[in-house]
């Protein structure tokens, strides 16, 4: 049987919306002042980039744990370029994985990134359907 996510999104006022999540948390979205909103929540398109980084980041965090790698910190920079014409969508996305620590195993960390990008991250696969992806891994040895 196929896995199904069911999200309910409610109009709050003006341009603000709120969605539930299977985790039980609520997520507020709103347009910016330039688009008639108040900026009181996440922008939906930018949230897509957070979903991409979150999906892949969870994979990488799990693999760091499984591989018993020494990493003090890591973060992901996700830069999306929108088309000029409406409907505007991301046609180019750069994803940078930054790892920090004094004893980084670069080969294994790169393997963790590659596994997420090529095999595990479903959001990455969805983005591949409409955007050109550029992946970069940066190691910050302390």
The mean pLDDT is 97
| Rg, nearest Å | 17 Å
Cα separation of the termini: 48 Å
Q: Please state the oligomeric state of the protein chains shown.
A: single chain
Which structural class best describes the helix and strand composition? alpha+beta
* Largest sheet, strands/sense/barrel: 3 strands, antiparallel
Protein name: OsmC family protein
Organism: Croceivirga thetidis
Briefly summarize what is shown.
By secondary structure, the protein is of the alpha+beta class. It is built from three helices and six strands, in the order βββαββααβ.
Question: Any key phrases for this structure?
Answer:
single chain, 142 residues, alpha+beta, GMP Synthetase, Chain A, domain 3, 3-stranded antiparallel beta sheet, 3-stranded mixed beta sheet, 6 strands, 32% helix, OsmC/Ohrsf, KH_dom-like_a/b, OsmC family protein, OsmC/Ohr_fam
Give a topology summary.
Blueprint: E1 9-13, E2 16-19, E3 27-29, H1 44-66, E4 73-82, E5 90-101, H2 106-120, H3 122-128, E6 132-141
Helix pairs in contact: 1-2, 1-3
Protein name: OsmC family protein
Organism: Croceivirga thetidis
InterPro entries: KH_dom-like_a/b (IPR015946), OsmC/Ohr_fam (IPR003718), OsmC/Ohrsf (IPR036102)
């Amino acid at each position: 049987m196929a896995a199904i996510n069911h999200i309910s999104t409610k109009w709050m006022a003006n341009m603000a919306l709120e969605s539930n999540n299977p985790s039980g948390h609520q997520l507020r979205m709103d347009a910016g002042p330039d688009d008639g909103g108040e900026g009181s929540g996440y922008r939906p398109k930018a949230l897509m980039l957070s979903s991409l980084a979150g999906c892949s980041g969870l994979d990488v965090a799990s693999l760091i744990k499984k591989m018993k790698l020494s990493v003090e910190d890591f973060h992901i920079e996700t830069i999306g370029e929108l088309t000029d014409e409406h409907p505007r969508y991301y046609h180019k996305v750069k994803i940078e994985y930054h790892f920090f620590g004094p004893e980084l195993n670069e080969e294994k960390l790169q393997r963790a990134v590659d596994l997420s990008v090529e095999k595990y991250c479903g959001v990455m696969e969805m983005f591949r359907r409409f955007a050109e992806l550029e992946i970069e891994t940066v190691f910050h040895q302390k």
